[in-house]
User: Fold this.
Amino acid sequence: MFVPKQAPPRAPSSPAPASPKTPQRARGDAGEDAAARYAQARGWPLVARNHRCKRGEIDLIVRDGQTLVFVEVKTRAAPGRGLQAVTWSKRRRLVLASLHYAGHHRVDLSATPCRFDVCEVWVGPQGKHQVRWHERAFDAEGLGLDL
Assistant:
C-alpha cells in the first residue's frame, strides 16, 4: 500500500523589510497629517485616508455635513502651484478612485452629494504647516468618463 509522505511544515514567511521613507514621502505624510487636522478643526470628520485601488489613490475622504469630500493633498516647499499640479489625468484617476470607494463602501452616489477638493500644504516661516484648501477644485465633467 502506498502512503504519501507528509510535507514538512513550512517556515512562516517573513514580511518584506519596510523600505525607508524618502524625504518626499515623509513631507507628503506630514502634509496629509496637517490637512487632516485642518479638516477636523473645521468640523469635517475624517472618513478614510489613503484609499488605494488599481485606478488611483485618494489622500483623504472627509464629510462636510452630508457631502462626501474627496481630497487630493499637495505638499510643497513653498506656497502656490499645488492646485496646478492636479492635472487632467490625476483628476481622472481621483474620480475613478472615488467611484471605486463608493462601490466598495456601498455609497449611493445618486443620494449622496460629493465634491473634489485640493488642499495645498507648505511649511511656513516658523516651521509650522500652512494650509490652503480649495473647495470644489474640480468635478468629473470633461474627463472622458461615462458617468
Remarks:
- The CA atoms of residues 85 and 122 lie 14 Å apart.
- The domain at 23-138 is CATH 3.40.1350.10 (Trna Endonuclease; Chain: A, domain 1).
